[in-house]
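Database export, one record per block. Field names are fixed; values are copied verbatim from the stored entry.
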Amino acid sequence: MKKISRRQFLGMSTKAGAATMFAGIFAPSASSMLGLGGVAEAATKKIKPFTFAVLTDAHLYDIADHKFDHILEKAVADVNSIKPRPDFVLYAGDLGQSGKKAELVKGKKILDKLKMPYKIIPGEHDYYLDMGKAWRQLFGDEHWSFNHNGVHFIGMNSILVPDFWTLKNLTPQERMHMMEELECHNCGAWGVGEKQLNWLARDVKRVSPDTPVVIMTHSPLWDYYPRWNFQTYDAPEIRETLRKFDKVISIHGHVHQVVYNEIDNMRSCGLLSTSWPWPYPPVELEYPHITQRRADPGDFEDGLGGHDISLDTDFNSIVRWREFSDLLPDNIKKGLKV
């Protein structure tokens, strides 16, 4: 299969077992995905079914033959084996662990084994050693959009923080180390920032309100647990910009766990990682009570996995989390209506 250039559209993969995969959303031609950069399609109330896959949070180390390498490799192989083959793959951030170019290069080599196009956004672990320089060299733009089979897809960099390092004379390594912490109270809240908000407004201006939208960010577009940066400070502005659309699905990484939320027209799905499962924060989510059980710390793949989302022509969907082991509560083992 001929590779599409990364500026046209490419990035990452996954599957059950090491990935996060959205299956059942539509079925294919790569040529229909090439209108990137916010080019609006004509309004369409029906979508053409197809499949795409999603992976997130590999957290690769600059260590040869690390266990996380093999999980990502397994995910790529799994995605390539899906029949019918997914049209494309999305990756939701944190490909590397410490922002080193060697980590990102390693990740790209694994992802380039995909037999379909992929598109990627950065996470905080990819970014703050060199402020995204190596990431951009390898993958291109930090935000993007494209249309596919009647659906408008959006990716945004949601891990931008105010400059906390210059006045403190922090080295790039010190800055990166602080951003690696789950609770960095000196780093400030994450967001997409004014420039991307303006870009988003321009991007969707010509998109019809009855066009289904899928938006991908690394951090959630709702206030899940701000203490761990399980939130995006300007998410309200993003939701307001997307309020004109009838149906919006938000997919996000960072949380390394099964989680779901609804605000107005936006339904948000948190993704399993291919590295480790985070514990749940002390927050009671009223719906749909889907807290997965604790993983076995002695099993390196326990608590990891993927999921697929099946959508019909009206963008109604069923989310199925496909974990490696039996961690899901009974009420969602057969899927969750979204």
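Remark 1: The longest strand covers residues 305-311.
Remark 2: The chain is about 20% helix and 15% strand.
End of record.
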